[in-house]
Amino acid sequence: MYDLTEMGMAAAVFAFLPWCQYKQGHATVELASALFPRTFDMFLSLLFNSAMTVVAVVGTWRLYLGMQDKLTYGETTLIAQIPVWYGFAASLVGGCGFIIVSAFCVLRYARAMMRRNTLETGHV
Fold this sequence. Notes:
Blueprint: H1 2-22, H2 38-73, H3 85-121
C-alpha cells in the first residue's frame, strides 16, 4: 500500500500543476506592484510565466530521463515489486500538460500586453 501511495502522490502533484498554472495559483510576492505602472506589472507576469515554462520543460525532460533510467534497469518498489517507471509515466502526463498550459499562459499575457498597448496608443 505504501508503494501505491508514493506513486499516487507524485502523479497527483504533477496532475495539478497545469491547473495551478492556469489559475495563477503559484505563490507570488506583490510588495511593490502597486508602485509600478500596470504595463510593468504585466511585463513581470509575462517574464515569470516564461520562466515557469522553462521550468516546466526542464522538469519534464528530467522526469522523462528518470523514467527511461528506471525502465532500462527494471527497478521495482521494495514491498509490492511494482515497476517504478509506472509512477514516472503517470507523472510525465501531468508534466506534458504543465508545459502546454505554461506556454498558453505566456501567450495569454503577451496578447493582454499587446491589447493594452493597442488601446493606449491607438495603433494596431
